């Protein structure tokens, strides 16, 4: 499965646009990590606990999007984007979305 943020893939042509695919996850802060993050907020610097949480959330959302694309017969997802939103106090959603397509190698 080719996944890209561009609207084309060099060396390939789009045979069919299947539709929009999405994958999301909602993550909540862990109370222990939240305390550590609060301390770092006072002294400054990167809050690694949240960086790691969001990295894991991006990977999970993207995997869910790819699985949705596979289910509908796509072999690539183009124009991939990510969005985040706070769903409730202490929890955030991460959404990955793009256009599921069927591609084939260009014949030269």
CATH topology (fold) name: Translation Initiation Factor IF3
CATH class: Alpha Beta
Low-confidence stretches: none
CATH architecture field: 2-Layer Sandwich
How many strands, which pairing sense, and closed or not: the largest β-sheet? 4 strands, mixed
Cα(first) to Cα(last) distance is: 23 Å
Estimated radius of gyration: 18 Å
Instruction: Give me the count of strands.
Output: 4
How many structurally independent domains?
Answer: 1
Give the tags.
2 helices; 108 residues; Translation Initiation Factor IF3; 4-stranded mixed beta sheet; 4 strands; alpha+beta
Describe this structure in words.
There is one protein chain. By secondary structure, the protein is an alpha+beta fold. It has a single domain (2-105), classed as 2-Layer Sandwich (Translation Initiation Factor IF3). Helix content is 34%, strand content 44%. The protein contains 2 helices and 4 strands, in the order ββααββ. It has helices spanning 31-43, 48-71, and strands spanning 2-3, 12-28, 76-88, 91-105. The protein has a 4-stranded mixed β-sheet. The radius of gyration is 18 Å and the shape is elongated. 17% of the residues are buried. The mean pLDDT is 87.
